[in-house]
Amino acid sequence: MTGTPDREALGTLLRHVLDLLDGDVATVYADLDLAEYRPRFSPLVRVLVADGPLPIRDLATRVGVTHSAASQTVAQMSRAGLVTLRPGADARQRIVALTDRAYVLLPVIEAERAATTTAMRDLDAELPVPLADELYAVLAALRRRPLRDRIAGTGLAPRREDAPAPHRGP
């Protein structure tokens, strides 16, 4: 990306920042001869190291992402040879486990995480508020009052409790 998104294009700005952060971490992995490893794999790897094999749904909950996002990431990790999948208690459930290859890569993955944590502290020192602190404050504010309710407060759309029932039939 070459340009900087407009201040009012907040979603675009957030994606731009995330792309810059993830892109730089991905470049570090490529420099470490792990080009197929993605930054989005690390939270799942950490949970699987700590908790052992888990159903995708439990893994998603522990990481804080949707089932769909976890499933997509697990599929990428499987293609990279980092996890295996086996059937769970029912036909829909799949249990995710780290492979021997993932365990061999753990020292490099952990070294990258430590280096990235140090680099983020360096970045935080340049910011008015540490990035994670600000993001947690945003999450808390949105949990108290979702953006949709804030938009409704402008008069553009009715609040949920005031919204009319959808029209059914002729």
From TrEMBL:
It comes from the Bacteria. Transmembrane segments: none annotated. It holds the Pfam family MarR_2. This is MarR family transcriptional regulator. InterPro entries: ArsR-like_HTH, HTH_MarR-typ, WH-like_DNA-bd_sf, WH_DNA-bd_sf. Residues 27-127 form the HTH marR-type domain. GO terms for molecular function: DNA-binding transcription factor activity.
